[in-house]
């Protein structure tokens, strides 16, 4: 009961509407200002992630020990950090890290969750009961604790973050997919496929999957927001990419101790970068859901 | 029949707790390999590491180690910290107290605020106020606590200099002084939870407003105010209030981050520091305590939800 309430996401609400999405609705989306603003900011960060090292005015790793903790100026728009590295360049280059880890982790969760949800929903019975108990057990523990223990045991790295977040998302996504598969299970085309003697694996992948794909896409966009939240937070706690690689969360962790000394620019700009990214993503997700449910 | 449900629920919590103890033990003592090596570092000689391992008792068979650890826990002995060479209980207890202060303060602020926001949004459903509250809630809940925390520190502690940067006070500080130090750390927690609680309150109120009994009350001539306070809110807020208890999981996650950012000696920071120091007994004790708190909160939420909701009560009995 409680687990369902905790994790009931807007995605699950949109699931029912995701089935019927005529092209007209996508044109409607392009006319929504919230969508356009969100998409523009997202696009900006994606460009930074891909071409960051070309756009950045300085080498994000280059230290200038004579210009440590310099306030924002004409030469360094966002100032320099405690090692004299250009903050603007590190913010631009830092987009790559979070925009790689979060989508890959979400994709891992979506693939695992879809497989699990298809099996649970298609076979039902004892398979469903057993797997549902496993899903409930994972959801019964606080997510932070699970992530914490795993990372402590395995050691911090980008790969660890991807695996931890992917595995935590998998049962959540599995539950949504399972519900969608159960709805599909009553359709005639499935009985005909069974009567034709198709193998379960073929039916699940070739017949059911294309029909529940919209649900998975909505679920993916919603989870991506959570993934960015999680990646940023775990990086801030020191569990992600290690210095000197530019990373918004890790850079904030490395410099927030200097806030008391008045060096605000070293943490404010990476913080604003994270805030703009998550808000942009949610503007996009929210617009998609509104259009789908209108 | 309700007692049977409660009994089953408590048993389930105990099983989950046992599972948690196994996971914590495996993660803390088995996966890192050699605790002696982990604590003493790569330069220590093989014989020193072996002697240290023997002293810690980690060279015994796993099952013996697990049983003695759990046996100790049942006697209230949580182990000895590697880093401080003293029992971990005093650290855990004081950290738990600090976290409770921060967490409870956050709940005291967020519950009325979230409910008021949600009810307001529902009453003006589909209109401008609703859109503003829903979008603000959504935006606030997606920004990680340390990000909003950084912005708050820069604005209120650095630029305006009206509030302290750090959350911890000197021992024996007055209540007002402590409260002063906790204002900034509480806000990021409130921001993240506001959207969720407001959304629950809004959904419950919209449903109740749309119900047959609300329509009947309106049609028999009751003023709108009476319909809302006597008929709608009573039905819509009950689930919302119980749902809040299930948010402890998020709150605990938020505490880890906020305590680290504001340098506050709570349970989250204790666990994080222990993890970085490879202080496994402290880590295990901290994680287990967090797990127990979370489980008790979820249990209370479930029981409240079932006992207070007559329809569910009937469902359980059947």
Describe this structure in words.
The complex is a heterodimer of chains A (294) and B (318). Chain A has 294 residues and is an all-alpha fold. The longest helix of chain A is centred in the middle third of the chain and has 37 residues, at 87-123. Chain A is elongated, with a radius of gyration of 22 Å. Chain A contains twelve helices and no strands. Chain A has helices at 2-7, 10-18, 23-30, 33-55, 87-123, 125-140, 143-154, 158-184, 188-195, 200-236, 248-255, 265-293. By secondary structure, chain B is mainly alpha-helical. Helices cover 79% and strands 0% of the residues of chain B. Chain B has helices at residues 2-30, 35-40, 46-56, 62-74, 89-123, 128-142, 145-159, 175-209, 212-219, 224-245, 248-261, 267-277, 280-308, 310-317. In chain B, helix 7 packs across helix 8 and helix 7 (145-159) packs across helix 11. The radius of gyration of chain B is 24 Å and the shape is globular. Chains A and B meet through helix 1, helix 7, helix 10 and helix 12 of A and helix 1, helix 6, helix 7, helix 11 and helix 12 of B.
